[in-house]
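Follow-up to my post from last week.
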Amino acid sequence: MGITKTTGFTQVQNKNALLFKALGHPARIAIIDHILSVKTCICSDLVDILPLSQATISQHLRELKEAGIIQGTIEGNSICYCLNTELMLEIKQIIDTYILLNRSNQTPCC
Amino acid sequence: MGITKTTGFTQVQNKNALLFKALGHPARIAIIDHILSVKTCICSDLVDILPLSQATISQHLRELKEAGIIQGTIEGNSICYCLNTELMLEIKQIIDTYILLNRSNQTPCC
DNA sequence: AAAAATTATCGTAATATTGCGATATAACTT
DNA sequence: AAGTTATATCGCAATATTACGATAATTTTT
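User reply:
Got it. Predicted complex:
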């Protein structure tokens, strides 16, 4: 069917899945890496850096933006994208909680 | 085209994207949640818990296993799945590095 | 040995994702 | 105003993902 079932899962489960899904593509990881490497927001050197067309990059930027992972503000004729620090911390929280719960498991059975 | 381009990205970027992709589905998040909640590995109460068929659950388990996120060992006529602690720590490391790099960014520009 | 239980796999249908060229939009530059 | 630059969107084709019923494979139970 191709459609992801969301009923029957908790809101948090659905929300977290969407976050991770947004991170689940090398182009989107590369965009994040680039933002972090230039230590400021980016305009669009991305087109010169990624092995993808402008249209495709724009699409990936939109997905990251819709997931809340990056924010973009219009800056004259270009757009200034940078990481949403709060959301990154949220993701960290999810993983940290997993690690913590896992640590409290009784036996490493497998 | 539907096919994800991997050439032109680093190996690490591709690898990390695959990890996050594996986490990017509510059923797979729910599976992880359940393993953590029962504090031990699971056999297959999953069929009674998730709103999905046995076939579909088996598919999601395989994806988690292929990504290295869970491990399964055959245990008589059922299978014992549990989290791969090492891989969870790897994921934590990825996120922690992101947070760290982001923190060292000069100006919160956007 | 037959039946039951547990899990994986196959085949298939529906939908989503990816990628790109072409085009649109908007703002700057001259 | 015309051209240039930066970004978004549309439309499309190719491939991937999701979900499930049916079936296979394996082990346990009876």
